Amino acid sequence: MVDTVSAFQRGLERPLILWLISKGPMHGYEIIKEVKRLTGRRLKPATLYPFLNRLETEGFLVSELIEKNRRELRCYRLTEKGKTFLAKMFDLFKMPIRRVIADLLGEQE
Q1: Cα separation of 109 and 102, whole Å?
Q2: Which residues touch 19 (CB under 8 Å, ≥6 apart)?
Q3: What is the span of the domain harbouring residue 31?
Q4: What value does the mean pLDDT take over residues 79-94?
């Protein structure tokens, strides 16, 4: 049987990843830590890295290698295309969620 709460949270991981990167360049482990801090769920590297690679291939992200504590880390940041996409995604969520909340509260818009 599918755990509804877990399934819903997994569905929010991708928009959350984009939003996190929109706040500033991040490497994979930072993203994993932030997702855990914000949701309580551990994001698996096998989920994260293919998603980041796909976004980079499609032009939504760019990455660069940086050196930190003698280690090379791949940091990701949004491109203009990625910023535009994120803004459109938020616009899609904004109005319907407002309506749902108003309906749940029994308020009229």
Answers
A1: 7
A2: 86
A3: 4-104
A4: 86
